[in-house]
Amino acid sequence: xxxxxxxxxxxxxxxxxxxxxxxxxxxxxxxxxxxxxxxxxxxxxxxxxxxxxxxxxxxxxxxxxxxxxxxxxxxxxxxxxxx
Length: 83
Description:
The chain is mainly α. Helix content is about 65%, strand content about 0%. It has 5 helices and no strands. It has helices spanning about 5-15, 20-30, 40-50, 50-60, 70-80. α3 (about 40-50) packs across α5. The relative contact order is 0.16.
């Protein structure tokens, strides 16, 4: 079974090389991460392992994430930003 990382490690992993990703991921961790189920926290951790160009393409809608669980998390994050 995968291990949940401490929140400070998650916050550090949200600091990316692209500002567009930073402004999505860092506020999400601050505002919503604690309310996620442990299963969703693991999905979010896996999302943070994805390379920046792929994340950028998924979040900007240029490509659809091919992994259903990661795609669901991308959409969840985007829905929170659009509100």
